[in-house]
Amino acid sequence: MEIDLNILPFSFYGSYLVIARDPEDGELYLYTVHGDAKSPKLLKFSPTSDGQQYDVRAYPWCVELNAESWRIRVVFRSHKQLVVAGDGCDLQLRVPYAGTYSRGVKLDNQRIKLLVWEARRWLGISTTVGELDLSDVDGYVTVRLRHDNTGKFVAIIEEANHEFIPERTYVDVDEVIEATQKLYSRWEAKLPSLPDELVEVAKLAWYVLWVNTVAPEGYLQRYTVICSKRHKIGDILWANGIWAWDHCFHAIALRDTMPELAWEQFMVMFDHQATDGKLPDYVKDTHLLWAFTKPPCHGWAYSKLMQNEFFTDRSRLCDVLERLEYWTNWWFTMRDDDSDGICQYNFGVESGWDNATVFDTRDVVETPDLNAYLVLQLMVLSEIAERLGKPSRATRWHELAIDTMEKLLSHLWEGDRFVSYVSGQHSKVVSNSLINYMPIVLGDKLPDRYFERLVKNLCNTMLTPNGIATEAINSDKFNPKGYWRGPIWAPVTHMVVDGLQRAGRHELAREIARRFCKLISNSPGMYENYNPITGEGNDVPAYGWTAACFIAMAHEYLS
Q1: What three-state secondary structure class fits 405?
Q2: pLDDT of res. 51
Q3: Which domain holds residue 102?
Q4: Do residues 202 and 317 both lie within one domain?
Q5: What is the sign, positive or negative, of the torsion defined by CA atoms of 525, 526, 531, 535?
Q6: Backbone angles phi, psi at 234, to 5 degrees
Q7: Per-residue confidence (pLDDT) for residue 235, from 0 to 100
Q8: Which of 94, 266, 402, 474 could form a disulfide with 44 if both were Cys (CB 3.0 to 4.6 A apart)?
Q9: What is the pTM of this model?
Q10: 191 to 3, 213, 354, 514: CA distances (angstroms)
Q11: pLDDT score for 98
Q12: 511, exposed or middle or buried, with CB in 10 Å at 0-12, 13-18, 19+?
């Protein structure tokens, strides 16, 4: 499998280092995805090619730069160390910032340490074959990897958040490539079963989950699949963390073949749960954000995980019960300002649907999706409590689930559809957003007459040949590149498909899953979201939950 470095990153399981082409100048760079980087670029790779044309080919285990008379190979030795080996040429590594605090110190002909100030990282560069030169070229700190009299060089690049002395270590690049290839083959062998026609795209999706995994560091206390290691156009880097609902979808994709890693994904946000039960909006290795949070789809997600008995182990259920109870109580305590038993979002970003049309009003909004998630979460709490032999707690959560369902239907259903209301005022928010259809996720828990009307309206207004749009396609606010105002998104597609499946609408569930998987197959960059008309990918590529939902839906509904 080859990797297109114009779209996807080359990295290593656990690493915060990334190699990719810059989308503006097309050049090859080494990046960091640490959370404190003001700009993610570390080094620009420039072979001294004497005018020779060369091509770049990337695989999950190495990157190759090949010309007629020379080649360079790049491979990870570990999640902290990168090996660069050349034959027949030199390689120039330039810090891409001029006139700043970035500095290089040459310790000897085989060792240099660099501070890349904008990225807030120290790099150590050492050679075991060949030598190093350090210079200032037009204000840019530049390192040259020089070949020896056999025409070869071998160097190690290592990163840290503190100053250190790089050590020279012998390395055989062929052995490192072979070891990395074997390591990746073991990962690929864990790909869940899928229809034959989807396997090649699924391998790419499975690579995205591998490549987006970072090692425990700072606030990230577990091996974590972050949203993406691929930067956006320019130096903006924001997807280098995990948000408080993305992790659920990552966990589901890993459930059957890598349950231990799936458990780590589900629990990573709960490591930082506040004493009042709130989850942070996101966590990165260097910081987390408490200003917002994300929707409580965690009960739904854990019900999916419990399809593997690994997740019904008593100790895990005890852990999940306590954390989900705190999380659920937080919503009813902190997000029901008018005390009507219907919870609200205080900000659009809390829903995860940041700019959906239901939030065009700048008011606090009671939405159907949120309260449907809470009904499911309450039912899951009741089930877990029952499994653990805690009947009084099971009864309490079941009764609250029934009460919340009744209020959802009496308060937010109008005519033949769910609607959203401004909290306190109870004035209807005019919106054609898919968010009002999300109670489909309740599946067979939603009474038939509501469910069937929802599904009929969904098919008439939201369903496109490529999948489910997030704004009605006949809406005057529909925008196929408008983030949550039209594009197709993986997580909500997954939840709708799952609800249809559990309600017995198997053919429709399968058809929507098929359309989504075909969409991804035709534009396989694993983008954050997709244009529902053209099928083009929008925004950040190599996005974790897109890859995860593709794998999960293909495995569960199409196999």
Answers
A1: helix
A2: 77
A3: 17-183
A4: yes
A5: positive
A6: 85, -160
A7: 54
A8: 94
A9: 0.97
A10: 18, 16, 32, 19
A11: 87
A12: middle
Q: Which residues of the chain have pLDDT under 70?
A: 231-236
Report residue 1 as tokens.
């499998």
Q: What pLDDT score does 19 carry?
A: 97
- Residue 530 host element (H or E): strand 529-530
Instruction: Specify the number of domains making up the chain.
Output: 2
Q: Which of 204, 296, 209, 171 is nearest to 520 (CA)?
A: 204
- How far is residue 173's CA from residue 125's CA, in Å, rounded to a whole number? 16
- With 0-12 / 13-18 / 19 or more C-beta atoms within 10 angstroms meaning exposed / middle / buried, residue 425 is exposed
The predicted structure's pLDDT at residue 137: 81
Return the amino acid letter for 73. Answer: R
- Is 11 within the bounds of a domain? no
Q: By three-state DSSP, how is residue 37 classified?
A: coil
Distance CA(193)–CA(116), nearest Å, equals: 44
10 Å CB burial of residue 243 (0-12, 13-18, 19+) is: buried
* Selection from 435, 449, 448 nearest residue 373 by Cα: 435
Q: What is the mean pLDDT of the chain?
A: 96
DSSP code of residue 192: P
* Under 8 Å between Cβ of 260 and 251: no
The Cα–Cα gap between 346 and 362 comes to 9
528: its two tokens: 């954050």
Query: pLDDT digit string (tens) for 76-101?
Result: 999 999 999 999 999 999 999 987 89
Instruction: Provide long-range contacts, Cβ within 8 A and 24+ apart, for 361-364.
Output: 361/422, 361/429, 363/422, 363/423, 363/425, 363/429, 364/337, 364/422, 364/423, 364/424
Contact of 82 with 135, CB cutoff 8 Å? no
The answer on 384 and 265 residing in a single domain is yes
We report the CATH number of the domain holding residue 304 as 1.50.10.10
So what's the pLDDT on residue 486?
98
Distance CA 368, CA 391 (A): 29
